[in-house]
Amino acid sequence: MADLKYLNTSVGGHCALELINTQEMVNGVLTDRLQDDAAVITWVEQTFMLKPAIAAKALNGDLLAGVLELRAILQRYLSNHQLAKKEFDHLNKALSQFKSYQQLVEKVGGFASQQRIVLDSTEALIGLIADAVCDLIALGDLALIRKCESDDCVLWFYDTTKGHKRRWCSMATCGNRHKIRKFRAK
Ligand SMILES: [Zn+2]
């Protein structure tokens, strides 16, 4: 497996799929976690484990729209594994705003490098999310990018299990519901 930069331990297993998972079913209703810029910042902090510490003035009001556009592009890509020219260009433009640099840090017995991400503007923040989307599209294995098998669930995940047989967003919710239904059907 290629080395994906944005794998994590969330339900989606990858930051870009967590972007998809900002929409989820709550009591049978499709609910969107990204309602405004503040919600986007909270989501970024949790998903990328960062403290963006973006001054309110650095946000020009286009954050939510920009992030939703990236989510829509990724959603379409997941459904047909293609990018329209317009989407391809849009992604590359967003990526060009991503700002990061390496810093040398000390560790026991030597040195290591650490990536620092600069989040000083709306565009830079959108650039970070675009970087995660690019990581998934360029390096992700399509066979491992899957939607939860439950028809009532819209969550996606990157299957990093050993046997690659993961079927559910979570065993505690969808997996368990499936088990109960199978049991009742007997
Ligand atoms: Zn599910």
Automatic annotation (TrEMBL):
InterPro entries: ABATE, ABATE_dom_sf, Znf_CGNR. It comes from the Bacteria. It holds the Pfam family ABATE. Residues 145-186 form the Zinc finger CGNR domain. Transmembrane segments: none annotated. PANTHER family: BLL6575 PROTEIN. This is CGNR zinc finger domain-containing protein. It comes from Methylophilus flavus. The lineage of its organism: Bacteria, Pseudomonadati, Pseudomonadota, Betaproteobacteria, Nitrosomonadales.
